[in-house]
């Protein structure tokens, strides 16, 4: 009986860290660590892993977990005294005892609601009170949905400003055989060139060296095509106008203690983000952002992958 199936399991993970496993009837699953509020695994009905997790990932505070979907808040990038990509990804979140209603399909049984509030130490680093909520849900078809709600709970009347990203690491067979569709003709900031602004010229993004770009005003749907595996990831986003594309390539990979020397070949970060125009919330105001991931078989056309079938359907 499907009603007897365990959709949500609370258990211990690496180094005794608390985690939640979400399961759907067809065999899809996701794994969420309370440390970082971080999805570390997403598998399809064939039990194939769809997210990249470094073999050298360090599951020990204060180091962020390398892979999965780290939450970048209250900043994306290294600005001022805050650590790069903010502190949400290396704090311990709690299961939300009283989540507000999230707009989602009532047929989704596999979900968990997490919340992060500032500690007194956090307030010294970033002097604001907030509630950062995250719902991680697994759809009946295996789609992975992340919905974030951030509320300003300051009592001193002060607004705060933040940037945000779902720093998603996709598992790919061979980075040199991957292409990203949906970002053509967009302006982007190149982080390898002092955030200089350029316009994308290619008909798709392909990879033959280090890439670290923020695409501005990106569409709500982006496709990542894994040519070798004949698989297309479709990323849908809402409330997050930008998209980050990142791969460290060989030299930077070797310099990273928590990434294997050759693991850059099997990962690609494509991230729903809000980077260019930060979000400002007055006390009592709330922001909402969402990212939905699905994986579909790629179709072929004239020997080439036909991403538009995945990109423009649905």
Automatic annotation (TrEMBL):
GO biological-process terms attached to the record: carbohydrate metabolic process
Binding annotation for substrate: 66, 84, 89
Superkingdom to which the source organism belongs: Eukaryota
Active site (catalytic residues): 167, 271
SUPFAM superfamilies: Galactose mutarotase-like
Catalytic activity as recorded in UniProt: alpha-D-glucose 6-phosphate = beta-D-glucose 6-phosphate
Keywords: Isomerase
EC code: 5.1.3.15
Gene3D superfamilies assigned: 2.70.98.10
Keyword Isomerase: yes
GO molecular function (one): carbohydrate binding
PANTHER family with a match to the protein in the record: APOSPORY-ASSOCIATED PROTEIN C-RELATED, GLUCOSE-6-PHOSPHATE 1-EPIMERASE
Family assignment from sequence similarity: Belongs to the glucose-6-phosphate 1-epimerase family.
Name of the protein this chain belongs to: glucose-6-phosphate 1-epimerase
Organism of provenance: Durio zibethinus (Durian)
């Amino acid at each position: 009986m499907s009603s007897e199936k365990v959709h949500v399991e609370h258990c211990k993970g690496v180094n005794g860290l608390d985690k939640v496993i979400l399961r759907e009837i067809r065999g899809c699953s996701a794994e969420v660590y309370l440390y970082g509020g971080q999805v570390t695994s997403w598998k399809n009905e064939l039990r194939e892993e769809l997210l990249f997790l470094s073999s050298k990932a360090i599951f020990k505070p204060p180091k962020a977990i390398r892979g999965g979907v780290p939450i970048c808040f209250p900043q994306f990038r290294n600005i001022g005294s805050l650590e790069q990509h903010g502190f949400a990804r290396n704090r311990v979140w709690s299961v939300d005892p009283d989540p507000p209603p999230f707009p989602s399909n009532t047929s989704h049984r596999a979900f968990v609601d997490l919340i992060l509030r500032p500690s007194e130490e956090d307030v010294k680093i970033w002097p604001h009170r907030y509630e950062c909520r995250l719902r991680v849900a697994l759809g009946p078809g295996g789609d992975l949905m992340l919905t974030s709600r951030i509320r300003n709970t300051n009592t001193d009347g002060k607004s705060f400003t933040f940037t945000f990203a779902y720093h998603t690491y996709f598992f790919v067979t061979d980075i040199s055989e991957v292409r990203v569709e949906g970002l053509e003709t967009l302006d982007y900031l190149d982080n390898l060139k002092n955030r200089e602004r350029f316009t994308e010229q290619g008909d798709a993004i392909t990879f033959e060296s280090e890439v670290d770009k923020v695409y501005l005003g990106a569409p709500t749907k982006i496709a990542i095509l894994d040519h070798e595996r004949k698989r297309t990831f479709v990323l849908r986003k809402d409330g997050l106008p930008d998209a980050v594309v990142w791969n460290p390539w060989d030299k930077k990979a070797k310099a990273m203690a928590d990434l294997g020397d050759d693991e850059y070949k099997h990962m690609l970060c494509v991230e729903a983000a809000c980077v260019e125009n930060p979000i400002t919330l007055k006390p009592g105001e709330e922001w909402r952002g969402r990212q939905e991931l699905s994986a579909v078989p790629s179709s072929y056309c004239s020997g080439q992958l036909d991403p538009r079938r995945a990109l423009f359907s649905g």
